[in-house]
Amino acid sequence: MTTPVTPVTPVGNATTHNNKGDLFQSFDVADFPVPSGRDEVWRFVSLRRLRGLHTGEFAQQAPAQVRIDGPSNVIVEQVPASDERLRVAGGPVDRVAAQAWSAAEHGTIITVPADAVLDAPIVVTVTGAGLDATTFATILVETGAHSQATVIVRYEGSGTHADNVNWNIGEGSHVNAVVDTEWARDTVHVGQQSIRVERDATLRHTVAAFGGEIVRLTPRVTFAAPGGDVELSGVYFADAGQYIENRMLVDHSVPNCRSNVLYKGALQGDKNSGLPEARTCWVGDVLIRAAATGTDTYETNRNLVLTDGARADAVPNLEIETGEIAGAGHAATVGRFDEEQLFYLRSRGIPEGEATRLIIRGFFNEVLNHIPVESVRDELIARVAGELEQNNN
């Protein structure tokens, strides 16, 4: 006797298997319903603070200000938004990313030639158009086979901004990427990053999120062939009135690839400021499909809550469809800093305030010390110190 198969009704914007790696994708904003706070992927952020990016009722659109600086052998093209090359890394999986794609009048393609070894970083600077304006951008960074490059994407100024910054990491290439959201404190930014990794390619991707009122970044990694090696790392620091969300997916669909995720964050609130509480959210999804034998992956998120009036959410998710892997695991913590470390430093004559700052700097340095560009690394270390001085005052 054959058991009848019960039809499966798919949930909105997902496959019949509810696989997070197979979320519905579209470049047309009209294909996505307006999200609500009951939707899982939007449940942490306050939608009313997104200034209409999710509904289409945003302030007047202004042209995106994108400046590219880099070595002379890097190719920079401004192309129509319909250029198929922009779509190589994947499409939007939520309404805001699709809105950014639909509204952008053109895209920017940055190409590193095959076999090129860049002697200086490529710096992409995105500047907000002001508090009363909304900007959208589409950017693709594409590295040729066996090339080596460092790419810094820096955000500055004020405004409301949504974008798709995508990466196509060519065969055997080695890329260091730094995404620095150095926005003014009144800025809202929602960004998706689709990352496609070719055979034997290496990507080191670091996010630094300190500025902005609302910053929500969603990197999504797919492996196109075996041998890919990806590390996603990040640091973030939220004060009263700030909300910072890092939501990522690493989709292992082919054999013998490696990934490692390490994000660290700190929060400090002020109940007397009249501002919303400081909040952060980290969601790490790792999917190992049935064909992805030999996968080696781990993800870690650590959060320090420095004061009252602050809240951190940490949600690691690991989905495994095959047991033939090298290893997989995850860890996430939210808590105060180590009181034993503080006691040790104070017992050596170090004042409590300075001891606290030393502990937190050490907490972040595990991530920051991996940034290959010394000037960027030093700047971020100084920014952490500035946040801690503010907390001490």
UniProtKB/TrEMBL annotation:
| Stretch list, region Disordered | 1-20
Under InterPro entries, the record lists: Fe-S_cluster_assembly_SufBD, SUF_FeS_clus_asmbl_SufBD_core, SUF_FeS_clus_asmbl_SufBD_sf, SUF_FeS_clus_asmbl_SufD
In the record, biological process GO terms are:
iron-sulfur cluster assembly
Q: Locations of Low complexity compositional bias?
A: 1-11
* Taxonomy, superkingdom: Bacteria
Tell me where in this chain the SUF system FeS cluster assembly SufBD core domain is found: 132-363
Q: Say which family it is in.
A: Belongs to the iron-sulfur cluster assembly SufBD family.
Protein name per UniProt: FeS cluster assembly protein SufD
Give the taxonomic lineage as stored in the record.
Answer: Bacteria, Bacillati, Actinomycetota, Actinomycetes, Mycobacteriales
